[in-house]
Amino acid sequence: MRHEPAEVSSVRRALHDDLLRDPRTSLVADDVAVVTSELVGNAVRHGSPLDGGLLVRWRVTGDEVAVEVVDGGGGDGPPRELSAHDADPMDVCGRGLYIVEEIARRWGTTVDTAGHRTVWALVPFAASAVPERLGA
């Protein structure tokens, strides 16, 4: 895919349509689409292009959907550790990885020897598999 903001919705639609075809993943298609949108959006905003674009992969494994977004690495110097944080209520951005953390069973990043960054997330089929975080 191209390294452009307009591509976020195209990837989200393609992934969502693909997941709706499988009865195991259809119930989490919306959650996986949200996670993927956040990861792709961050790669477009903060990462460098990977050969002019981004690589987005997803696969069904066991009881979850694995999503990976690969970019050319940090746009401003060496790759930095990514973390979720609470944004100020008046901030217009900064909540994406917090949303990923709330939906995904696990997520993380890896950087290869060429400096390409992969951000990945594992979204379980059953909501009960996600650890309770809000004490509801």
Question: Which terms summarize this structure?
Answer:
alpha+beta, 3 helices, 29% helix, 136 residues, globular
Q: Averaged pLDDT, please?
A: 80
Helical amount among residues, as a percent range? 25-40%
Q: Which residue ranges are poorly predicted, with pLDDT under 50 across at least 5 consecutive positions?
A: 128-136
Largest sheet: 4 strands, antiparallel
Beta-strand fraction estimate: 15-25%
Give the overall form.
globular
End-to-end Cα distance, whole Å, is 39 Å
Order of helices and strands: HHEEHEE
Radius of gyration: 15 Å
Number of helices: 3
- Give the helix/strand class: alpha+beta
Give a brief description.
This protein is 29% helix and 21% strand. It has 3 helices and 4 strands.
How would you characterize the overall build of this protein?
By secondary structure, the chain is α+β, with helices and mostly antiparallel strands. 29% of the residues lie in helices and 21% in strands. It contains 3 helices and 4 strands. It has helices at residues 7-20, 29-46, 96-103; strands spanning 55-61, 64-71, 106-111, 117-124. A 4-stranded antiparallel sheet has the order 1-2-4-3, with helices on one face. Helix 1 runs antiparallel to helix 2. The chain is globular and about 35 Å long. The relative contact order is 0.18. Mean pLDDT is 80; it is low at 128-136.
